[in-house]
């Protein structure tokens, strides 16, 4: 039981990241010196971590790491950049700028849409880094705090149909994002040659920032495309006759775990209750401040909000937030999620504008043989007078198409393989994380394996006569779960080359965590098992019972109700 | 107790006594040391050579200018023969010869090679320039004989030797024996010139110098007991590893080659080169055998190998040269080639990027095995700067080989030796090698002396050896390396090793120039100018400068940059700067190994 007089802090030697944040002079470190060092393409120890707060990760091409070691060459160091795009909205003008940069200055030439509504460049070499920031800045884009121990890019349901509601929600996601940004001017100083100004404090985040990454969403039911349960802090829109009145606030979601460490687990967020709009920023600020002060700074594997909640107790945490914000949570208002996927194809908004949602395999935008996606999107951007919206499923909405542009945009999309009537529902409900070759943490393939995996599962569905049904299928290269496999009906989690754990029992709307069914198995074994179970499901399911519900009813896996106690049980 | 032959020794009676008792008191080891010491002394100051007789009875002086040892070896042969005839002989490296002393010479033989576009080898540059300058003395009483060695595949064949003869005669010297200008197969033809020269000088010198007279020898020749293996008798060594060290997207193929010298007793020093005999591409050989309608299995008299093996192992088939065209044209009665051979300039242009393989492919015709072999010249071993120090790798020797590769006439061309080393060799194969000393490319004796190394591309090879050497010796002297190549990500040779040496502090500075990573081309000479102030400071603190790699452009541009730096940061006029750099060369503080 906690001693109320003492703040519930985990004692012990602080994690090294705490030292480097403290010594970084508000995230400056010696990044500038490293940039000027021509002998290596990489960054030195602390700066390697610090550039993350500026939205970059140092990576290398893992496919050729061993080869280069033999060649007495260092790994092919480069950086990945992740932009800050609250709500995933990007204008056609901005799009033209970034796709040009990717084309001309990155190793892979791709623009990669992520599961958090933004884009990444992969393979930017040191000499281009500063230039990159200046280019995106010229288009009004930055990458501040898209990584590191801070509040990340704030998600917002793309829902283009209820345009007004969405507009409001979107404005809030932007405001929250800006409210929680670091105060330090390190970013403009280092990358945009902004004039030097001493940073003296970080009002909200504190001098050593947060104990761990922190993720926030704004969502508009009934669509859960943002997957709220993957996030630390969620504002679920509550509307009365089309007008936004406030939010239900859910805290403490997160999906990552570490193989073999039962102290780590994917966990759903808890509903703290309802707050009216005017308290939005205060609540956001103090959920963050409580996690800032109480979060575990000793062990980073137990540092996220989800573990703080389970350690101090939901009520204690909630009470502290109320006390600090001077706001009481009201009883949460009823809402329901009925879908999670994107609404592909054309929809017409209440404002009479048209919106086209495109499925983009892995969000990897490149010119492929017979599918010049990048060129297609460039051509669309050149004529489009609305905006683009990156979805949390790595897809893209061409939003606000004026009726007169509709036909031409559809033609371009078809000519460039952006619309393909052969795409199955299964494909459109499948997702993978990046993994190899760029992700340093990948234990197995994900993005590069997805096409084959989907083809096999499509085959299985067809074989059992349900070709146009689907299961939410996600594959990730390691248990960090960036492709949110831990909210899928069937999730593959990489364990080693060609080896995965199979988790089953999530549901379609993403409100249930799946449970381990097969451990460290080859893809053949996993596919054989899926064949058996899908056959079973096809034969014995109740009227529109989804696969995830079926495997629990059929006793294939037990339902995960309370991760802390039953996920590893 | 050893006796000093009275007749020979120029010592006074009591000097002689002291000397004998000193000798008597010495162990053989001590004696060996003293003799070496005196010889070396004599060598570095041959003109004041303590035991050389007075100018009156002028000795026979052999001056050689050699970069890769060939001229040196020939000069040595000449010296041995002269001594055998009882001439009082001194053999001197031009680099160790004070130009002004030339006025004392009466009987002079010159053996020199040619480099660049008809330029003298590094070691001959000073004397060559002096003889062409106003300062040069009259030499009416000097009798000379000149031997030039070169390569007819170069435009200015043996130009340096010709220069020397012209300049000496212009100063009044008389030619006593006709000069010879020999091609790469000089070994087979040097004998005539040596014999002729000895005979020509004999009456002049008629010096009945008694046997046993001391012949001062230039350093290097006595520097180490020569290993039994040599260019004429190469060691068959096992290849331990061939590793590509440029990235997969590089425009260049550079290979790190590791070879075992185990059991050879071969020793080398950082700065030396390894001579490599190679095998021509056997499928290419088979192809030309077809075209020429010769079997390949037949034996040429005087050789125990079949024609095919001879072509693969002993004859030059990649580097083309005028002589082949003429001989081949005659042997095959090919009119086109005969016509072409008449115009030297046109012929040269034709040979520019053609290998002998190409010529034969273009003009296939039946030819007799003997005629074919007759038309081809003997394979010349290629030299590679040694990229390792024995202090580090012991019985191994490492090379950094840039594979010569280009497309022409619808086929891929590989350099003979670099193609063999880089592409055709397998680990475990044997190759024939020898060590070629280069005493003009050596780390300073003083471990404290700062060193500036400029080695873009494969020019980095000897500096890897230098650094391993200084590392093993725990030398405190600062080390500054300039390296350059096309692309940072693909062509940063030995990047990881260099990074470690920076961390350990062995490398004090590493300045890199990657020419094609930005719009404007950046080369090492630009980095030298950028760092001019610091470069000058190093020079003033006694730093030695070393340059290795491409001589056609790099060495010239670096030389110019060097003079710029001295001029602008040393506050000197252009001429003063030139003089300063020349002085560095004389002081052996500016050494180059360029090719
Ligand atoms: C690009 C993206 C996956 C994708 O295919 O879209 C991604 C990619 C990476 N994630 Fe992630 N994560 C991405 C969404 C997620 C999600 C899903 C979400 O947020 O909706 C999760 C699970 C939810 C959660 O956080 O619990 C996620 C949990 C992680 C973790 C585990 C965090 C933890 O709690 O332990 C790591 C590793 C870490 O932080 O130590 C990680 C680390 C990484 C890194 C940066 C690897 C690294 O740390 O060096 C990956 C870069 C791969 C590459 O080459 O691009 N990523 N990452 C997603 C980018 C989102 C964004 O734009 O910000
Ligand atoms: C002292 C010394 C040290 C050396 N050290 C090194 C070293 O450390 N590393 C190293 O790699 N080399 C070094 N070299 C050069 C090396 O000895 C060889 O000259 C080189 O490897 C080429 O020999 P090869 O037999 O492969 O090519 P060859 O068969 O001799 O062919 C070379 C010839 O091909 C022709 N040629 C080349 N490129 C082209 C082209 N693009 N188009 C048309 N024609 C072309 C030219 O005529 C050239 O002379 C050194 C040379 C010397 C003298
Ligand atoms: C880079 C280079 C350039 C050369 N240039 C010429 C030249 O212009 N004319 C010539 O006759 N020989 C030229 N040669 C051939 C050399 O003179 C020949 O190899 C000679 O045997 C070298 O003798 P050395 O070892 O005493 O220096 C050149 C050789 C090299 C490696
Ligand atoms: S899940 Fe693992 S492998 Fe996939 S992107 Fe995230 S960290 Fe990399």
Overall description:
The complex is a heterodimer of chains A (569) and B (595). Chain A has 18 helices and 22 strands. Chain A has helices spanning 16-22, 31-36, 45-53, 65-70, 92-105, 126-138, 163-179, 186-191, 280-294, 305-312, 314-325, 373-383, 403-415, 425-428, 450-463, 523-540, 547-553, 563-566; strands at residues 56-60, 77-82, 89-90, 111-113, 119-124, 155-156, 216-219, 233-240, 243-251, 270-276, 345-348, 354-358, 364-365, 367-368, 371-372, 387-390, 396-401, 430-432, 473-476, 490-496, 499-504, 515-522. In chain A, helix 15 links the parallel strand 18 and strand 19. Chain A starts with 15 loop residues before the first helix and ends with a helix. The mean pLDDT of chain A is 96. Chain B has 595 residues and is of the alpha/beta class. Chain B is built from 22 helices and 18 strands. The longest helix of chain B is centred in the first third of the chain and has 17 residues, at 28-44. The model of chain B is unreliable at 1-7, 42-56 and 208-225 (pLDDT under 50). The interface between A and B is medium-sized, with 16 and 22 residues. Iron/sulfur cluster is lined by residues 433-435, 439, 441-442, 446, 476-478, 480-482 of chain A. Flavin mononucleotide binds at residues 66-72, 113-118, 121, 149-151, 154, 156-158, 551, 595 of chain B.
Q: Overall 3D geometry of chain A?
A: globular
The radius of gyration of chain B is: 26 Å
**Largest interface, per-chain counts?**
A-B, 16 and 22 residues
H/I helix tally of chain A:
18
What portion of residues of chain B belong to β-strands?
A: 15-25%
- Total E-strand runs of chain B: 18
């Amino acid at each position: 039981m906690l001693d109320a007089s003492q703040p519930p802090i985990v004692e012990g030697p602080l994690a090294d990241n705490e030292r480097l944040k403290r010594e970084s002079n508000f995230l400056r470190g010696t990044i500038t010196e490293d940039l000027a060092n021509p002998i290596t393409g990489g960054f030195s120890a602390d700066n390697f971590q610090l550039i993350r707060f500026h939205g970059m990760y140092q990576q290398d091409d893992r496919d050729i790491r061993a080869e280069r070691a033999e060649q007495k060459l260092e790994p092919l160091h480069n950086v990945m950049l992740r932009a800050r795009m609250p709500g995933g909205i990007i204008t056609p003008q901005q799009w033209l700028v970034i796709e040009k940069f990717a084309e001309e200055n990155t190793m892979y030439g791709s623009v990669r849409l992520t599961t958090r509504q933004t884009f990444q460049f992969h393979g930017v070499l040191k000499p281009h880094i500063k230039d990159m920031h200046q280019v995106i800045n010229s288009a009004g884009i930055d990458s501040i705090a898209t990584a590191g121990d801070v509040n990340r890019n704030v998600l917002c349901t793309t829902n283009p149909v209820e345009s007004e509601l969405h507009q409001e929600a979107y404005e809030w996601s932007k405001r929250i994002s800006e409210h929680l940004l670091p105060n330090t001017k390190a970013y403009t100083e280092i990358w945009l040659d902004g004039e030097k100004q001493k940073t003296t404090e970080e009002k909200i985040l504190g001098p050593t920032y947060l104990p761990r990454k922190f993720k926030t969403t704004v969502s508009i039911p009934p669509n859960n495309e943002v997957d709220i349960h993957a996030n630390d802090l969620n504002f679920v829109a509550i509307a009365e006759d089309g007008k936004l009145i406030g939010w239900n606030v859910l805290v403490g979601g997160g999906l990552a775990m570490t193989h073999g460490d039962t102290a780590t687990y994917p966990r759903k967020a808890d509903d703290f209750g309802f707050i009216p709009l005017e308290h939005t920023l205060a609540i956001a600020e103090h959920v963050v401040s409580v996690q800032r002060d109480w979060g575990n700074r000793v062990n980073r594997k137990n540092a996220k909000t989800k573990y703080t909640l389970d350690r101090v107790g939901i009520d204690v945490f909630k009470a502290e937030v109320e006390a600090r914000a001077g706001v009481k949570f009201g009883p949460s208002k009823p809402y329901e999620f009925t879908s999670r996927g994107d609404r592909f194809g054309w929809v017409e908004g209440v404002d009479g504008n048209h919106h086209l949602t495109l499925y983009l395999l892995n969000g990897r935008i490149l010119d492929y043989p017979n599918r010049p996606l990048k060129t297609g999107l460039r051509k669309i951007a050149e004529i489009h007078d609305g905006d683009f919206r990156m979805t949390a499923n790595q897809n893209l909405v061409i939003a606000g198409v004026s009726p007169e542009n509709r036909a031409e945009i559809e033609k371009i999309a078809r000519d460039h393989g952006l619309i393909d009537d052969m795409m199955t529902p299964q494909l459109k409900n499948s997702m993978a994380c990046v993994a190899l070759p760029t992700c340093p943490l990948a234990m197995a393939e994900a993005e590069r394996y997805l096409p084959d995996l989907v083809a096999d599962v499509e085959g299985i569905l067809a074989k059992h006569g349900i070709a146009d049904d689907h299961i939410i299928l996600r594959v990730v290269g390691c248990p960090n779960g960036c492709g949110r496999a831990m909210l899928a009906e069937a999730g593959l989690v990489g364990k080693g080359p060609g080896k995965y754990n199979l988790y089953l029992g999530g549901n379609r709307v993403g409100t249930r965590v799946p449970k381990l069914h097969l451990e460290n198995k080859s893809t053949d074994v996993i596919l054989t098992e899926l064949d058996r179970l899908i056959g079973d499901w096809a034969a014995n399911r109740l009227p529109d019972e989804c696969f995830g519900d079926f495997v629990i009813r059929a006793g294939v896996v037990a339902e995960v109700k309370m991760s802390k106690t039953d996920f590893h049980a | 107790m050893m006796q000093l032959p009275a007749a020979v020794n120029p010592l006074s009676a009591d000097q002689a006594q002291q000397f004998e008792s000193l000798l008597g008191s010495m162990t053989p080891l001590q004696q060996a040391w003293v003799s070496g010491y005196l010889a070396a002394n004599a060598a570095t100051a041959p003109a004041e050579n303590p035991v050389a007789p007075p100018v009156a009875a002028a000795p026979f002086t052999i001056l050689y200018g050699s970069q890769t040892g060939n001229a040196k070896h020939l000069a040595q042969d000449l010296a041995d023969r002269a001594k055998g005839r009882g001439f009082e002989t001194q053999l001197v490296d031009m680099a160790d010869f004070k130009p002004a002393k030339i006025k004392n010479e009466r009987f002079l033989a010159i053996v020199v090679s040619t480099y660049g576009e008809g330029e003298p080898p590094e070691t001959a540059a000073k004397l060559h320039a002096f003889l062409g300058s106003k300062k040069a003395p009259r030499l009416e009483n000097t009798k000379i004989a000149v031997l030039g060695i070169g390569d007819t595949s170069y435009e200015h064949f043996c130009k340096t030797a010709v220069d020397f003869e012209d300049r000496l005669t212009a100063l009044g010297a008389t030619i006593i024996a006709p000069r010879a200008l020999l091609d790469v197969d000089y070994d087979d033809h040097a004998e005539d010139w040596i014999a002729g020269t000895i005979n020509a000088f004999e009456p002049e010198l008629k010096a009945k110098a008694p046997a046993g007279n001391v012949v001062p020898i230039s350093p290097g020749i006595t520097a180490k007991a020569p290993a039994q293996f040599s260019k004429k008798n190469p060691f068959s060594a096992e290849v331990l590893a061939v590793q590509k060290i440029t990235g997969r997207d590089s425009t260049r193929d550079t290979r790190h080659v590791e070879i075992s010298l185990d059991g050879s007793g071969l020793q080398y020093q950082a700065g030396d080169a390894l001579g490599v005999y190679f095998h021509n591409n056997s499928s290419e050989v088979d192809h030309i055998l077809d075209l020429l309608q010769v079997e390949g299995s037949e034996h040429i008299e005087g050789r125990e190998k079949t024609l095919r093996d001879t072509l693969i192992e002993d004859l030059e088939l990649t580097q083309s040269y005028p002589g082949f065209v003429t001989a081949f044209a005659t042997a095959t009665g090919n009119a086109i080639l005969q016509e072409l051979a008449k115009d030297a300039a046109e012929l040269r242009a034709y040979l520019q990027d053609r290998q002998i393989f190409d010529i034969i492919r273009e003009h296939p015709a039946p030819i007799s095995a003997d005629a074919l072999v007759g038309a081809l010249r003997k394979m010349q071993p290629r030299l590679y700067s040694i990229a390792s120090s024995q202090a580090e790798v012991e019985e191994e020797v490492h090379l950094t080989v840039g594979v010569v590769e280009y497309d022409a006439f619808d086929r891929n061309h590989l350099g003979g030796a670099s193609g063999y080393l880089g592409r055709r060799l397998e680990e475990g194969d044997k190759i024939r090698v020898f060590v070629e000393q280069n005493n003009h490319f050596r780390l300073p004796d003083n471990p404290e002396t700062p060193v500036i190394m400029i080695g873009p591309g494969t020019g980095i090879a000897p500096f890897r050896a230098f650094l391993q050497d200084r590392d093993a010796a725990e030398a405190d002297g600062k080390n500054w390396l300039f390296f350059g190549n096309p692309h940072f990500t693909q062509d940063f040779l030995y990047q990881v090793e260099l990074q470690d040496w920076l961390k350990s502090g062995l490398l004090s500075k590493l300045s890199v120039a990657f020419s094609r990573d930005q719009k404007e081309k950046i080369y090492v000479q630009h980095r030298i100018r950028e760092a001019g102030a610091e470069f000058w400071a190093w020079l003033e603190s006694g730093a030695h400068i070393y340059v290795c790699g491409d001589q056609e452009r790099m060495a010239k541009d670096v030389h110019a940059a060097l003079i710029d730096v001295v001029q602008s940061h040393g506050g000197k006029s252009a001429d003063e700067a030139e003089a300063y750099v020349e002085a560095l060369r004389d002081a052996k503080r500016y050494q180059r190994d360029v090719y």
